[in-house]
TrEMBL record:
Regions of compositional bias (Polar residues) in chain numbering: 11-26
Region Disordered: start-end pairs: 1-59
Name recorded for this polypeptide: Trimethylguanosine synthase
Annotated GO MF terms: RNA cap trimethylguanosine synthase activity
Domain of life: Eukaryota
Record's catalysed reaction(s): a 5'-end (N(2),N(7)-dimethyl 5'-triphosphoguanosine)-ribonucleoside in snoRNA + S-adenosyl-L-methionine = a 5'-end (N(2),N(2),N(7)-trimethyl 5'-triphosphoguanosine)-ribonucleoside in snoRNA + S-adenosyl-L-homocysteine + H(+); a 5'-end (N(7)-methyl 5'-triphosphoguanosine)-ribonucleoside in snRNA + S-adenosyl-L-methionine = a 5'-end (N(2),N(7)-dimethyl 5'-triphosphoguanosine)-ribonucleoside in snRNA + S-adenosyl-L-homocysteine + H(+); a 5'-end (N(2),N(7)-dimethyl 5'-triphosphoguanosine)-ribonucleoside in snRNA + S-adenosyl-L-methionine = a 5'-end (N(2),N(2),N(7)-trimethyl 5'-triphosphoguanosine)-ribonucleoside in snRNA + S-adenosyl-L-homocysteine + H(+); a 5'-end (N(7)-methyl 5'-triphosphoguanosine)-ribonucleoside in snoRNA + S-adenosyl-L-methionine = a 5'-end (N(2),N(7)-dimethyl 5'-triphosphoguanosine)-ribonucleoside in snoRNA + S-adenosyl-L-homocysteine + H(+)
Residue ranges of the TM segments: none
GO cellular component: nucleus
Length: 238
């Protein structure tokens, strides 16, 4: 069980556990020209790191993985097909991230469903970047805005987007999505007004919120406001 198996070649994602591989370090691509809303907090992609920051991991053998997430680690290549290139994850993100093939399917469905004129998408609880990367890869959006409240998780998403070559298509925002989009009931600042106006006129808001995790014992209730009810089919599905 302690022996690490060498990964020779993979053409597509598999459910086999990841194996050790030397991480590569490359300079991040330059940020594409796109004017964010006034006062927007735009974090450029970080420089590539050899070692993950505190709370972030790139597990390479099962002995390193906490017992309660080992079954998720065994699916690493279906979560991120480029896992061996140095994908970063927090322990909580293993059971919350959207698997790559599912994320790509969602991105395709969203692109086909949106009304004309919608060219920007907000991934408001982006996690370690599963859906965000898929949206950026789809080619549908002029800009992808990724919002994440946890700083370590956001750093994972930024790093993972670099690995997939789409970091320059994404604007990263660290904060509460409800506050940033002016949906928390508080008085809006200039940034919140700008983002809310952008989302209302040109944007689509996508949310894949955390479901509670390994310790969830009670049902959660959420209150959602649908801004685009006129173009949703009656009793239909997205």
């Amino acid at each position: 069980m302690g022996k690490k198996r060498k990964r020779v070649q993979r053409v597509q994602a598999s459910n086999e556990p990841p194996t050790k591989k030397q991480n590569s370090s490359t300079d991040p691509p330059p940020e594409a020209h796109h004017d964010p809303p006034p006062e927007a907090h735009h974090d450029p992609p970080p420089e590539a790191h050899h070692d993950p920051p505190p709370g972030v991991h790139h597990y390479q053998s099962v002995e390193e993985v906490p017992w309660d997430i080992q079954k998720y680690w065994n699916q690493a290549y279906s979560i991120f097909s480029k896992y061996d290139d140095g994908i970063w994850m927090t322990d909580d993100s293993w059971y919350g991230v959207t698997h790559e093939t599912v994320a790509n399917t969602i991105a395709q469905h969203v692109a086909e469903a949106v009304p004309p004129g919608r060219s920007i998408i907000f991934d408001v609880m982006c996690g370690v970047g599963g859906n965000t990367i898929a949206f950026a890869l789809s080619g549908k959006w002029k800009r992808v805005y990724a919002i994440e409240k946890d700083e370590a998780t956001l750093r994972c998403a930024q790093h993972n987007a670099e690995i997939y070559g789409v970091a320059d298509r994404i604007t990263w925002l660290n904060g509460d999505c409800f506050r940033l989009l002016g949906l928390d009931g508080a008085e809006m600042d200039g940034q919140a007004r700008s983002f809310k106006a952008l989302a209302s006129k040109l944007g689509v808001i996508f949310a894949s919120p955390p479901w509670g995790g390994r310790s969830l014992r009670y049902p959660l209730r959420s209150s959602l406001t649908c801004w685009d009810r006129p173009w949703l089919p009656r009793r239909g599905s997205l």
